Amino acid sequence: MRGPAIWAGLLFLAACSTPPAPNKVAETPRGPDSLILTAIGYDRLPGWRSDSQAQVLPALKRSCERLTQLPPGQPVGSDGRGGLAADWLAPCGALRSVDPANPQVVRGYFETWFQPFLATNGNGSDGLFTGYFEAELKGSRHRGSRYQTPLYARPANLPTDSTQVYFSRAEIEAGALKGKVSELLWVDDPVDAHILHIQGSGRILLDDGSVVQVGYNGSNGRKFVGLGRILLDHGKIFPGDTTMQTIRAWLKTHPAEAAGLMAENPRYVFFRFLTADGPVGAAGIPLTPGRSLAVDPRFVPLGVPLWLDSVDPDGRPLRRLMVAQDSGAAIKGPVRGDVFWGAGEAAFDIAGRMKSPGSYYLLLPRDRTGPVALATPSAENGESLRGG
């Protein structure tokens, strides 16, 4: 959904610097981030036996299809923390015979083939988990009536050199690209279009009754400035009231001011039509709502399953098996995740409010080649690895 080298920010508050709520946000690290993995038993995974692990199997199968197509000797992850691609052949092969209707068989599959590792930050920082969603807009293939906001295709002259300056959002919305690049679609709400630029992909419900998906296809290369930061600076909202819901509601109820304020975010995104079954993450495969997690691939290899231990926006335990399948410029650090909640208003509601402390545990093949396999035993847990 975000793509391998996606936009400068995922959340409205990515550029905000308001004080975090107590016990909600990770402390500022005092030194360089460093991932430490410590092997533990499944009996120490909080809530392990209460999850319906079968729900993650479609996501894991998609990751396995990607991992098993890699050259056998290719490291998995930026530093080979996930071993080699060959290490995944056996567990991915065994996955094909797992009966998803049998919870004990599914749980036994993971316990047989994977070793859990507690992930911690080497400088002691706690983990932070947010949420994102697939935007859903109303649109048309032709400009007219209420459909006045364009979604542009990638310009042919878009610079590939990051040192070159391209038109800003304000310039584009003032007509800088008119007649120079084609419009994929026209949508009926400029605020929702801006949200689509931030999320990176979405579903468009067309006026002819059809539905199309669009996804990120480049940007103007300008720095991202969060809408939350912009509204705070102008005194339109106040610290502590900067959820996506609040920001969107303010902009929609103040249309005369909204356009100028949104133009203060100079970053602009271009789109293409998608043909995949759902939004595509940085791993190059469709995301699974509630089971795909965006991570920082500098530390966590894309494609690996992991156990999340956090809470949802209403304070209820959020303990479930997920797969690392996406990334994002605002998702930085050894213990940092963004839960993909799906499409539509229900997903928007939970994603926009989620900002929770927590932790996760990587599940890596028991038979591994590479840094993790060479980790030195720890006195308490048997195996640990420092890296990053």
Describe this protein's structure.
By secondary structure, this protein is of the alpha+beta class. The protein has 2 domains: 35-129 and 285-387, RlpA-like domain (Barwin-like endoglucanases); 134-274, Barwin-like endoglucanases (Ribosomal Protein L25, Chain P, Beta Barrel), CATH 2.40.240. The protein contains 9 helices and 14 strands. Helix 7 (244-253) packs across helix 8 (255-262). The two termini are 25 Å apart. The model is unreliable at 3-29 and 373-384 (pLDDT under 50).
Compact summary:
The chain is of the alpha+beta class and 388 residues long. 21% of the residues lie in helices and 26% in strands.
Average pLDDT rating = 86
CATH architecture of the largest domain: Beta Barrel
Helix percent band = 10-25%
Which structural class matches the secondary elements?
Answer: alpha+beta
Radius of gyration from CA coordinates: 22 Å
Could you give a short account of the major beta sheet?
6 strands, mixed, barrel
CATH superfamily label of the largest domain: RlpA-like domain
In percent, how much strand structure appears in the residues? 25-35%
Number of helices, counting only DSSP H or I runs of 4 residues or more: 9
Which outline best applies? Answer: globular
Here the CATH topology of the largest domain equals Barwin-like endoglucanases
The CATH top-level class label of the largest domain: Mainly Beta
H-E string: EHHHEEEHEHEEHHHEEEEEHEE
Distance between the termini: 25 Å
Question: Low-confidence segments, ≥5 residues, pLDDT <50?
Answer: 3-29, 373-384
Please indicate the count of domains: 2
Total E-strand runs: 14
User: Strand order within the widest sheet?
Assistant: 3-12-9-11-10-13
